[in-house]
Write a structure and sequence with these properties.
By secondary structure, the chain is α/β, with parallel strands linked by helices. 29% of the residues lie in helices and 28% in strands. The chain has one domain (2-10, 27-193): Vaccinia Virus protein VP39 (Rossmann fold, 3-Layer(aba) Sandwich). A hairpin with a 2-residue loop joins strand 8 (175-183) and strand 9 (186-193). Helix 2 (57-64) packs parallel to helix 3 and helix 4 (106-112) packs parallel to helix 5. Keywords: Methyltransferase, Transferase.
Amino acid sequence: MTRIIAGALGGQTLTSVPGDATRPTTDRVKEALFSRLESYDALQGARVLDLFAGSGSLGAEAASRGARSVLLVELAPKAAAVCQLNATGVNKGLKAEVVSVRKGSVDAVLESFAPVPGGSRGRSWDLVFMDPPYPLTEDQLAESLKRLSLLLEQGATVVVERSSRSAEPAWPETMVRFAEKKYGETRLWFAEPVEIGAD
């Protein structure tokens, strides 16, 4: 059973994705992750992007803990449907439309937010979760991170969740890893945007 751990909706249960198509973040890892994010003051009022969202449990947790808006991005039809169910439940509990869902590939959704040359900057984010499926290659992950790097607010936090046996992600030159933590079979990487040429 998946649940929201803390915040306004602490204890509320979430629908899980049927079968083994997704790899849910364990409660232990989720609790440690969100404790760290709260110590960074990364949640209150944040615009959150949950990529490869699965059931949307990370985004739901962020909404419960004070995020201003949360977008769940999921390609798999069953998982996207579960995301919508959980988004509806969270919004009902919060009595506000905080969580929304986009069904589609991560790269396509990121591309849709890309800045327009000579025009507006595009949508930007304060906190991003990336929990890609294990079959996603390191090159594919690097490409997604490169697209994402154009959409981050100054001071944003990006959390990448991978197998503890996976290599460190190849960060784009405009993003730097500032922390990592291993929890059993899971490793979390924390990164933030940097300006090229900045000290």
